[in-house]
Each structure stands twice: as structure tokens, then as C-alpha cells.
């Protein structure tokens, strides 16, 4: 059997706050909360979740890996506004303004995108 994706790990200063932010963004739950690890996911049986781990250094440059989120086309702008109200902020990583995505950052500065809806992973 090939390897499968289990967790996406995000370094964080405030693990509980980051976990709450992302759980709210994704409509997920906090599944496990320990001193040095907080895990969120849709439920305990989901194949993939997000794990927050402590880090002491500050984020200094653009992420080398980021999440792309999507929604129904008619909900996209409202979802962006909802995520901004949760504590995200708009960021400029060199966009031209013609992109089909919006770049945001979570409360600790980790970039992510809200992309146009797609029917497949390659469309």
C-alpha cells in the first residue's frame, strides 16, 4: 500500500488559537488538544487532519507550502468576508489582480488562498 496523507502540520505560537481559527474556517472540530500538539479534522475517522505544533521562531518569508480553499461560486465572496471576520487578513505576495484566487493569511501570518470553484483537481 502506498503512503497516504495523514496530517498537514502547521507550526504555531498559540496552538489553541490557531486550531480554533482553522476549525472555524473549515467547519471542523478540535479532535485532540495536548500541550505540544492540537489536531483538528472533520471527525475522528477522517483520513486527513491538520496538526498544530509549537515553534519559537517568527515567520519571516512567504510560505513554501500553503492551503487552497474553495466554496460554491455564489458563496465565495461571503466566505472570504467570513474568514476575514474570524481573524484572517488580505496579503500581497506579488499578485497582479487578474488571478482567480484571493490570498489571505491566518492570524499568525501563514498564507492561504481562496480559489475559484473547480470540478477536478486539474481544471
From TrEMBL:
Residues 4-117 form the VOC domain. It holds the Pfam family Glyoxalase_6. This is Glyoxalase. It comes from Streptomyces mangrovisoli.
